[in-house]
Structure prediction request, 140 residues.
Amino acid sequence: MEYYSPLMLCVITVAALDICALVLIICAYREKSSGKKRWDKITSSMELVEQGYTYQLGCDEILIGRHASADIRLSDMSVSRYHAMLTVADGVWTVSDLGSKSGVYVNGVRIKKKALHENDTITIGSRQLVLRKRRNARDE
Prediction:
């Protein structure tokens, strides 16, 4: 039976822990990468663009309004506090009016709920937002 010195056991333990940490880091990176690909597929890599602003669509429900708790906050008195909701399912974004006074318009037509397509213009109060593919998504 061989005897290992305490120093040798420490070296072996540290090497094993380093290998485990490296494997965990590689697995986490792969999971993050595949998770991003899944999310991009679900959302179709879309964003909302307003003159001078780009709003990333980073979750499956996005509240648009004037209130501080809105995901996309439009500081404009023509926008209701809780004006509209964007949702996504299987790569299709939908906008719904939440009972706002001034309504929600898609390409100039007032809607209650409507599935959106690339380059649709959503009018909320006096603000116009365009749904488009993220620019960096086109380069991928």
